[in-house]
Description:
single chain; alpha/beta; Rossmann fold
Amino acid sequence: xxxxxxxxxxxxxxxxxxxxxxxxxxxxxxxxxxxxxxxxxxxxxxxxxxxxxxxxxxxxxxxxxxxxxxxxxxxxxxxxxxxxxxxxxxxxxxxxxxxxxxxxxxxxxxxxxxxxxxxxxxxxxxxxxxxxxxxxxxxxxxxxxxxxxxxxxxxxxxxxxxxxxxxxxxxxxxxxxxxxxxxxxxxxxxxxxxxxxxxxxxxxxxxxxxxxxxxxxxxxxxxxxxxxxxxxxxxxxxx
Length: 239
């Protein structure tokens, strides 16, 4: 059975994975106001706050209490990895899959601990309508949501077309509205032959038409076997 999803799962990455995804060095975050959107159970904000950085996250799941999110995250991480491994076209070596899941559960625990103590840094909000003023953040990071949650037919993971091109353009415009620079990862197709996910170029075209500076740049982290087109989308807002 082909692996697919019918909703956005509560699934996050570790601090090191996030820095690699966005091709960032830790010292680059000094002095910046940073938004992770959607943040999910990433360890990015948790570890960043622990290191003294000015970190914030937005996600619709932040309307729920820590224990609810811990239980939901654990269930969705383990269930998603089980289904992934049951798809013979997608499955990884078992050790690789086990290591991957272990890191995701570590990220979840890091998130929950900080979410309990710094709830004000986690805002319940959904793209493409964020409750922040224009240019509120120096850097906006968005991982494993846009492009990933396109439909299977378009190289994403969704079993439906709920997040089509219009949604992607509106969501990216909103990220650019609230941030001076936006970095989005990944841009590859998750299913089907190795290629760029098909919404990436139309999104680039829309951002260029809006007057922003746009580029694809190599990520410093590879997920599983996705070594081709392993780039992030970087958008620097026009003044």
